[in-house]
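ligand=zinc ion
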Amino acid sequence: MAYTVPKLTDYSAAALDRAAADSHHACQSEAAAVRNDADLKSFRDRWMARKNGILTQINDLWLKGAPPEAKREAGIQVNRLKARITELVEGAHVSPTGALDSEAVDISLPGIRRPIGAEHPVIKTMHEIVGVFEKLGYSVAEGPVVETDYYNFEALNFPPNHPARDTQDTLFIAGQKAKPQRDRLLLRTHTSPVQIRTMEKLRPPIRIVIPGKVHRNDPPDASHSPMFHQIEGLAVDTNITFGDLKGTLDHAMKALFGSSVKTHFRPSFFPFTEPSAELYVTCFICGGSGKRGTDNAPCRPCKQTGWIEVLGCGMVDPNVFEFVKDNGYDPKKVSGFAFGMGVDRLALLKYGVDDIQLFFQGDVRFLEQFG
Ligand SMILES: [Zn+2]
């Protein structure tokens, strides 16, 4: 029911207080109910009109009707109420919600900015690399992080006493001693086991990239972490040659680091490829000169050589195919190449970060630079 100004019979301070509070509350509710410009105008008129507005009525009914001894107190109350109501009426505005005005959303205020997440620089780099190979027709394969000795070492042609099987490099799961060596569990030291797992499932030809987490028994420092990320690639078909390997990786490096980079292969050794090579690209920081800036400062990322090692690669060793021969991988009929790169190291180089630990400490101040 709409508020009407009551006649006062009781002029005690408590009664005046109560009457003023009722009036103020009524004004507040009406202000909150203003939904459009017409509401706003009639609300203002109802309370403020000089002729018969509510304030005028209060003045007439409460002040003029007050007994002489209560006049002073009533005057103070009425003046205070007038000030508060004037403030309410002047502050009233069109509110589209049904909430009380004090709770209503003021759509003219600036919004609350909620920070949206961004890709972690390592994941971003990983997606970029995977994206380059997806465009070449490669699909993505994944496998378990906790792996057996068989898939991590044996089927990849690591001899039984290869140093990589030593606890110096590999984190073994405890309590596995009772099992035969090939069944013992460990944290995979590379993403290469997924090559075997995929070849067991799919017959040739295959073209896959394998992104994932790997672990090694390395104490953390600026360039080592016990957990890091790799991307591995594998292509198997008839008549795949080292020329295919070179052409594919040269294309991928240009797609990743810019069309002006040059690639360079140096002989290397990996148990599961033969021949094996390390791939170097011209330093994308100094452009291959080994010097930076106008003062010819030494380029640290390439150690002034002008070349940066980015990955290991090679032709799949026929011994590896022997493990999956029954699924169509007869080494006399198929050939293939494989490559693997450390994503974290490439992210370090790409973003000019000098400590790999920064990637894994979860410090938002560091990470938001890449958002
Ligand atoms: Zn350089």
